[in-house]
Amino acid sequence: MKIKVLSEQLASQIAAGEVIERPSSVVKELIENAIDAGATQIELEIKDAGKKLIQVSDNGVGIPADEIALAVSRHATSKLSKAEDLFDIRTLGFRGEALSSIGSVAKLSIVSKHRDADLGAEVSVDGGKTEGVKAKSAPDGTVVRVEDLFFNVPARLKFLKTNTTENRQITGLITRYALAYPHIRWQMIQDGRVYLQTTGSGDRKEILQSLFGVSDAKRMLPILFEDGEMRIEGFISELGLTRSNRRDITLFVNGRWVQDASLTAAVIRAYNTMLMVGRFPVVVLFIQMPPDMVDVNVHPSKAEVRFKESDQVFSTVQRAIRRGLLAYSPVPELNTAVLWGRPVEDISTSKPVQMEAPWQMPGQQHEKTEESERVQTGFQPVGQTQSLQAPLSSDYLPVLRLVGQVAATYLIAEGPDGLYLIDQHAAHERVLFEQMMAQARSGIVPSQALLEAAVVELTPEKAGILEERLDVLKGLGFEIENFGPNSFALRAVPAILAGGDPAEAIYAVVNAFEEDETPLMAEIQDLVAARVCKRMAIKAGQILSPEEQKNLLLNLETCQVPRTCPHGRPTMIHLSAMMLERQFGRTGAI
Q1: In b/e form, how buried is each residue of 500-520, taking b as 16+ CB within 10 angstroms?
Q2: Please, where are the H alpha helices in 250-389?
Q3: Is 505 strand, coil or helix?
Q4: CB 50, CB 149: distance < 8 Å
Q5: Residue 524 near residue 512 (C-beta atoms within 8 A)
Q6: For residues 228 and 223, what is the distance between their CA atoms, to the nearest angstrom?
Q7: 373-407 in b/e burial notation, b at 16+ Cβ within 10 A?
Q8: SS3 of 322, please?
Q9: If DSSP states are collapsed to H, E and C, what string results for 456-487?
Q10: Which pLDDT tens digit goes with each residue over 529-576?
Q11: H or E element at residue 345
């Protein structure tokens, strides 16, 4: 095949692929330009998840009319003039590629008026073809309008996620930048609806509620740490507030949102031994350091950085978080009223406190170890007695005789072939799940109306997720309606869940779709039901009456798949009679 020079238009589209991956990439480039322009007010409007329209308006310094045509040219920037400037970057943008890249894959128009000029100007780019500059009356600042994104590269459109996912990407981006720049008045409008609006007061706590919700925001701890030329401030979650992934670890370096594996590892390491395995903290950090200590010219998207002294940065971030955690976690005093495995009386408040598990003090987290994993899964090291266990059918459970409850977490039952240790939480999950799905498949789902509607307030990001799944929840017996911006009124719940906290079920649904963005349509109802049941099931550390224990055991016996919870975790461990005899030396040496 002959070597040939690519056309300018094709070269631009290829280059744009590195900068403009999805609608949120466009939003990021445009708001960073607005911040660099000194804006104190930024408004974002999007339609159809940014595919139809992305418009960013700001009141920054504006672009002079005689430079506006250059602004949409490749490698045209006001922020660099010589190579040395790359090691002293104090702005968010500097490569001069963003507007050109956007214009090559969309219909772009810019209207801008410099604050010292009497008249503004407009320039348009249609799929890489620049039209002439026109004089235009406009207020101080800039309005960038991007329409029909990827209209000339339809293959890129096919790789975009659902509108809910793309909207969530944009909402998360704007909210985080609003948190990083609280002195700017931000407004975001999605499909005609205001999703975010800040006052520009400079109060980060106000915006923190928009990002994580009111209840979680109250559990975020402010930190401030300085070490030499590095300054770290932000918010870290208390030990009881965790996530199942790293998505809510947000890091800004010199005002730039970055994704850095080493920094993320430093954050997680700071919580080492304090959180359960598989759980991650919620953290927002703003790191300031001299520009020559960090290289931001690593990738065209400017999301990756490289540190001159990476070990020092890692250590400083870790110490900052660890010190903050210790400052907010005083050593607990000995409470002589604590009774092992039972509710205790808090002497200072005279209120009953339920222990989370018999080996934990109230509020403590239990870290899984290799040994605890073996207990949970029934795994035994080679050379022990697992081989003596008879294989068990996944769809059969013999009639069991209840013996009792141990550690406020497990039921002990006797069967014809030995003992069964049953995890009460996992077992109740399975029972609730099969009951809920059986009702849903029959089309008759008994609902229990609430005496007083439970109002659930969500972040803009999570509100969009819930709205898209309201029909699924209705099919499961929930009655939910909009109750103002990002608020929902829960008026009825499935009858089998009537004893629990109804708002918890809604949070479970939202979290399920945050973690699994693109489930198959056939799996959506199962996914929602599984998450709801997990949240509503009885918990480890909850003492059950003999009657409650017996009912749980009987209900588990009627399940089609009694040996695992809906998420695949075992509900029970079987200790065969043969294994017990072996352990007690009744069949010879152990």
Answers
A1: bebbebbbbbbbbbbeeeeee
A2: 261-270, 310-327, 370-377
A3: helix
A4: yes
A5: no
A6: 17
A7: eeeeeeeeeeeeeeebbeeeeeeebeebebeebee
A8: helix
A9: EECCHHHHHHHHHCHHHHHHCCCEEEECCCCE
A10: 888 888 888 988 899 999 999 999 999 999 988 988 887 788 999 888
A11: strand 344-346
- The per-residue pLDDT for range 410-461, each reduced to its tens digit, is 999 998 888 999 999 999 999 999 998 888 888 888 888 988 888 888 887 7
Q: What is the pLDDT of residues 52-108, one digit of tens each?
A: 999 999 999 999 999 999 888 876 666 555 555 555 566 786 666 889 889 999 999
The packing angle between helices 521-536 and 424-442, to 10°, is: 140
Distance, CA of 461 to CA of 196 (rounded, Å): 10
Q: Which domains does the chain have, with CATH numbers?
A: 8-200 (3.30.565.10), 219-327 (3.30.230.10), 336-367 (no CATH), 400-590 (3.30.1540.20)
CA atoms within 13 A on the CB side of 287: 31
CA dihedral 197, 471, 526, 457 (to 10 degrees): 30
For tokens 């948190």, name the residue.
Answer: 179
